[in-house]
Amino acid sequence: MNLLLYETCFNPKINRFTEAGLCAVIPCSFKSGFEAEVIIWYKCDQPVERCKNSDIIFHSDKNNVNVQSGFKGRVSLLEPDVTQKKCSIMINDLRPSDSGYYQLRIAEYSGLIKQHFHFKFIHLNQKPKVTIPPLNEGQQATLTCTAPGLCSGHSSTLTFNPSAEHHNSKITCKVSFTGDKTTEKTATLNVTLEYSKITLNVVKVGKKHPPGERKLIHGQSKMTHGRQQHFLS
């Protein structure tokens, strides 16, 4: 391969601090004076002018066997068609050992683009996202637990019929990653209880209502959050 450099525009948008256990998307695009045929990503222990073949973590040629064993199956190109001039990758199941210097090469048989940058992967601190819709007694509702991470997209749902017994109860969303990493978040359920109509029989004794005469009074009872209120007329 001829290593002739071409004038190019490279546009990486990188979050250099990413939490271990999650995943990272490295968006990038490029312009070149040649038709790109190969995209190669490397991870080096130290900043160097050119990483070695043994440092490869992703190669767009599926027949290449030089990919580091620790990165196999964890790195993928978001746009498989290299002619689209997009070099974004996603790294799954991040590990602290992934911290280091990364290098990108985009090449054809007569040209080469190189770019260097550094990443640091920190310990997992993010919590799952728990989505709870308004909960009304007797009306089916679905709770959603979404794993943290910009590129995870993994979620789990729980569908149930809320009742008075569920009010103020706690629900926990727990996400487990490979490598025995877990993160969780607990939320409290807030159930609005249904309205119910009641009829009260009230005995009033007086000049207008002699003993033994009953006056029928209608009212309504509203139960919200376990409290009962009576409205009489």
What is the structure about, briefly put?
The protein has 233 residues and is mostly beta strands. The chain contains no helices and 20 strands. It has three domains: 9-122, Sandwich (Immunoglobulin-like), CATH 2.60.40; 129-192, Sandwich (Immunoglobulin-like), CATH 2.60.40.10; 195-231, no CATH class.
Number of strands: 20
Query: Given the structure, what is the number of helices?
Result: 0
Let me know the largest β-sheet.
Answer: 5 strands, mixed
**Principal-axes shape call:** elongated
Distance between the termini: 93 Å
Relevant CATH superfamily of the largest domain: Immunoglobulins
Radius of gyration: 31 Å
Low-confidence stretches: 1-14, 214-233
CATH class of the largest domain: Mainly Beta
Please give the order of strands in the largest beta sheet: 2-10-9-5-6
Helix content: under 10%
Number of domains as seen in the coordinates: 3
Order of helices and strands: EEEEEEEEEEEEEEEEEEEE
What is the arithmetic mean of pLDDT? Answer: 73
Q: Quaternary status of these chains?
A: single chain
GO cellular component, one term: plasma membrane
Biased composition (Basic residues): 224-233
Pfam families: Ig_CD22 (PF24518)
Protein name: B-cell receptor CD22 first Ig-like domain-containing protein
